[in-house]
Design goal:
Elements lengths: L1 H16 L28 H15 L23
Length: 83
């Protein structure tokens, strides 16, 4: 019995490695444990090159004229309980 399970696991691994493109993890639903949709693209792909170009452009941009960012507060709507 355990030999059959071992053979099936090995065959499943071989079949998964023959996926048409990408990684088998790309086809797993997120509720099962797949990576989230907003994950950066995989390296060595055209999408990754564009992603890196956008990151580099943002890093090189002059941020001295940007308005100052607001500090986050722990209280929603400004109603904080007094301690």
């Amino acid at each position: 019995m355990s030999f059959i399970v071992l053979i099936l696991a090995f065959a499943g691994t071989l079949l998964a490695s023959c996926a048409p493109k990408g990684n088998i993890g790309d086809y797993i639903p997120q509720w099962v444990g797949a990576p989230p949709k907003n994950l950066p693209p995989r390296p060595r792909t055209p999408e990754y090159d564009e992603f890196k170009r956008r990151l580099d452009a943002e890093a090189a941009r002059d941020k001295s004229n940007d308005p100052p960012s607001q500090k986050p507060t722990d209280c929603a709507g400004g109603a904080c309980p007094q301690r």
